[in-house]
Amino acid sequence: MNKRVLGALGAAVAAVLLLSGCAGGGADASASTHDKTLRLATMTVPQSLDPKDATGSALPFFQAVYDTLVLRTPDGDYKPMLATEWSYNDDQTVLSMTLRTGVTFDDGTPFDAKAAKANLERFRDSGGPDAANLAGITVDAVDDTHLTLTLQQPNPGLLFYLSDSAGLMANPSDFDQKDALVTTPDGTGPYVLDKDKTAIGTTWVYDARKGYWGDAPDFSTVTMQVFDNENAVVNGLKTGQIDSALLQTADQQLAAEQDKDLAFQDVPFDFQGILLFDRGGALTPALAKPEVRQALNYALDRETLLKVVRDGRGQVTSQVWGVDSQGYEKSLDDYYTYDPEKAKQLLADAGYPNGFELTLPRLTSIVTDNIASALQTDFAKVGVKLTWADVDSASALKQIFVEKKFSGMVMNMGQSSNDWIVYSTLIAPGTFNFFGTMDDEVTQLATQARSLPEDQTAELYQKMNERIVEQAWFVPFYRMTYKLVTVPGVTAVPQAGMAVPSIYNYSLSK
After folding, report:
1. How far apart are CA 354 and CA 288, in angstroms?
2. In the chain, at which end, N or C, are there fewer CB atoms within 10 A of the end residue's CB?
3. Which residue, among 78, 272, 286, 267, has the nearest Cα to 162 in the 3D structure?
4. Across 244-334, where does the E strand assignment appear?
């Protein structure tokens, strides 16, 4: 099972769903300008600062001290970082990279191709979150500044991974020292950890690195502080303890909006909906019929659900592709309108005129009372009896993904800007398709997309998205609109493919 996804699921089960980005100053904008401190609030606590343990929601903790091989810009494009240029061969199975010169780790050790090779092989072999993403890749250091990655088959997600956690470069001299990087990171990044001011589990403090190879950051200090609820985060924004935050819940967004000095940007990232694992009908035979899956989509009153659950803060949708991806098609957002009569007819056409029974696990951190009640009510109107099975956080992952006890589940899922990652995470046999049910057309489209450069695949992913929506592989509810909040004097830019901005996306307002 994909350990990166399991890590994200574990966080969801534990209701640890928020990472907030903050920047220095609070109510007194001049204070942020003078002290140049970027204060980050988070409800995600990294278990380690070793890159092999990094996961997406905690990435800013790592970006502060480790550069990546490739920089992913806010709009999702790829730019040079530790790698200055790269290219694929014609069949997309060899990636050649040229590395930056004059870069050193914190202890003065030069960064070179051997160091990059050691890091990539460690990710591949460590069994950590990125092991599956680099599986089967052979890494060769041609000379000090040239690196080749040879793939067993094309991997259209590779550049994304190298701009994400799998691209974080640490000093290989620390690899043989057990747990050395867990609390003492050693990278080439724009900041160094101030261990004297850091209290692991509560507050992390980073100081700007002297002699950093790149542009000096606007902030001389970055502080990441743990909060246990969004109400505390909003209070921090209003009182000047925090300068920027990503707010997820509707009530706390509303509370923050009462402060007219704060600025807000919409961040559509997570979608919420039912992931249907059992499209072959192994546990619930009715789900093998596309008409039944379509009926579930027509039965759902998404507009009312969005209004009740999130005060309308989001966008109803029938697709799992996000707005930053090539495969996204706006017209598919309202493909399934609320139509109980059509749902009943589809069920009858599929041989289920009296409906059927469906049991789903209920993780209370995600399936709140109003969501649970609304789904039961909407489905009951068309004859589907939905039963919620309570599962505790300790056993949920085992019951759902190992023992395969349920035909689907309600999840909040981040929407990657990389189409291949959307496909490989949600569609292909694996973590969220553990029954391995596929469709010939989707498989053919994926095979074509895999062998082409990314800039030639948009039409293929759009066709794949259309097919999956038409066949009703999922029952999406809506994309949730989060709010990126900033105080006067601080600018933050949302990051495509992430819920929170990258550490590089914060600056002092000009």
Report:
1. 17
2. C
3. 78
4. 244-247, 263-276, 314-316
Q: For 352-376, what is the mean pLDDT?
A: 96
Mean pLDDT of 153-176: 96
Q: What are 168's strand-pairing partners?
A: 68
d(CA 18, CA 484): 12
At 350, the amino acid letter reads: A
Tokens standing for residue 226: 């743990």
DSSP string for residues in 377-439: HHHHTTT-EEEEEE--TTTHHIIIIIS---SEEEEEE---S-HHHHIIIIISSBTTBTT----
Token code pair at residue 236: 């921090």
Q: What is the pLDDT of residue 25?
A: 36
**What pLDDT score does 262 carry?**
94
How does pLDDT run across 457-489, given as a tens digit for each residue?
999 999 999 999 999 999 999 999 999 999 998
CB 507 within 8 A of CB 489: no
Strand 244-247 relative to strand 474-486: parallel, antiparallel, unpaired? antiparallel
Q: Per residue in 401-422, is it b (16+ CB within 10 Å) or e — as a string?
A: beeeebbbbbbbbebbbbbbbb
Q: Which amino acid is at 120?
A: L
